[in-house]
Amino acid sequence: MSRVGPVGRLGRYTASHFKVVLAGWLAVAVVLGVFAPRVETALSGAGWEASGSQSVQARQLINKVFHGLSSYGLMTVLYSPTKTVSDPTFQAVVARVERKLRADAAVTVVVAPTAGVSVSRDGHTAIVQAGAARDSNAMVVAADRLKGPLAALSTGGVQVSLTGAAGMWSDFNAANRSAMLKSEVISWPVTLTIMLIAFGSLVAAGLPLMLTMIGLLATAGALYLGTQVLPISIWAMNFALMFALALGIDYALFVVHRFRGAFFGSQLSAEQAVAVTMDTAGKAVLFSGVTVLISLSAVMLVPSPAFRSMSLGIMLAVIFVLAATLTLLPAVLAKLGPRVDKLALPWAHSGEHRSARFAAWGERLWKHPIAYGAIALAILVGLATPVTQLKTSMPSIKVVPASDSSRIGYEQVAAAFGPGADGPLQIVALAGDVTQVAQIARRDPGIAARCQPRRAAATRW
Questions:
Q1: pLDDT in tens, 154-197
Q2: Which residues make Cβ contacts (< 8 Å) with residue 89, sequence separation at least 6?
Q3: Residues 387-420 pLDDT 10s
Q4: Could you tell me if 221 and 33 are in contact, meaning their C-beta atoms sit under 8 angstroms apart?
Q5: Domain residue spans of the chain
Q6: Does the model's pTM come out above 0.90?
Q7: Which class would CATH give 6-34+200-346?
Q8: Confidence class of residue 46 from pLDDT cuts 50, 70 and 90?
Q9: Is 162:150 a contact under the CB 8 Å cutoff?
């Protein structure tokens, strides 16, 4: 016992100072837990961009000299299958939409529908544009705020839908939150059942749940505080949830099983068994967590807010779950002692948890490593083969439910204005280069049509 390493000594300290450890984690839970419920509304919805890229520079320039009419300006689509823009009812809805947009602080200018530009040839579809007065993340928040009131202006057979990049991300974030809640409702009972089978007792199965919940609570609070300093994508919380659950189960499984072996398989006290456990399984958990953190630090170098946010969410979850595993879990195990096997399953035996079948299987693998290794390799290659056909892409309007306003408006624009109308390229050029730029764009097979260039007032663009 005197020769246990630093991790073992840490385990022994936490085992003998349960109240101190518990008070410390309660303080963490209370302080960060206060902010945790606010994280979903604080996380930003945009971020799929390459920081400092030409597209970002072009958008910033458009916002500056073209009254915010960039890709993150708001696009409101008005459609009626029976009425045209010349109908008084249609015009009344257009006027109400324009007033609603002008009244919002996130809008710089409102551009009314213009024949040949933002009114379809049949006159049944019109687009009202609104310039962005905020950055991309704030425009997504503005879309959250406006899409409901704008849709409520639909009347007399005229449908109003907010679409565009800001509208799409607003709808995606809402769908994402709903999907997360649904996944938790479905997955938690299944996860708890699996943990109960794996750990053999209800008390032991509750330990990974403890790690997961404390990790999620602390991560959510920390992410909220982070949003007060820099924009963090909603993807951070998605990945934090996945990793907190996965690591909470894995780390608890390692430590609890090793504790059972040390405590029930010898004459050690609970505190001594914790020290031995943390000197072995705890050390493995520490190296595992540090390896994950080092690997994820490389992702922070990717010049994209969305990817950095994912990495940040995972790293925070790893840090808190790892810290709880190294301090709170051993303290609780020492406090429980033999009660760790309370409320056990009928077929689960108390005492040292060993499996003669798995031991025999391990010996068989050890005696024939080449044969079993070749079989395992063949299976892994077969399972990995589909990766060669994997096709990846950036999120598009297809990730948004078909019933959401941004998807509806997108499809209405595509149907009314033709191919490419709902995914226009905005090119910023010096006034003297407009003709040459237009010729280059016209020769590209991916360009379906070219709009008339718009000149910025009192500038060289």
A1: 988 999 999 999 999 899 888 887 887 787 778 878 888 888 88
A2: 83, 155, 156, 157, 158
A3: 988 888 777 888 888 999 999 999 999 999 988 8
A4: yes
A5: 6-34+200-346, 427-461
A6: no
A7: mainly alpha
A8: low
A9: yes
Q: What is the pLDDT of residues 124-150, one digit of tens each?
A: 999 999 999 998 888 999 999 999 999
Residue 150, number of CB atoms within 10 A of its CB: 24
> For 178-182, 300-304, 438-442, which range has the lowest pLDDT when averaged over its residues?
178-182
Q: 132 - beta bridge partners?
A: 107
Query: What is the CB neighbour count within 10 angstroms for residue 285?
Result: 24
Determine phi and psi for 301, rounding to 5 degrees: -85, -15
Burial tier of 383 (Cβ tally within 10 Å: 0-12, 13-18, 19+): exposed
Nearest alpha-carbon partner for 101 in 136, 64, 129: 129
Let me know: does 46 contact 349? Beta carbons within 8 Å: no
Beta bridge pairs of residue 111: 129
Q: How many CA atoms lie within 13 A of 239 on its CB side?
A: 19
Contact 343, 202 (CB under 8 A): yes
Using CA atoms in the order 431, 432, 437, 439, what is the torsion angle rounded to 10 degrees?
A: 120
Please give the single-letter amino acid code of residue 12.
R
Q: Six-digit token pair at 331?
A: 């303290």
CB atoms within 10 A of CB 159: 19
Concatenating the DSSP letter of every residue in 109-174 gives EEE---BTTTB-TTSSEEEEEEEESS-HHHHHHHHHHHHHHHHTT-BTTBEEEEEHHHHHHHHHHH
DSSP 429: -
The rounded mean pLDDT for the chain is 88
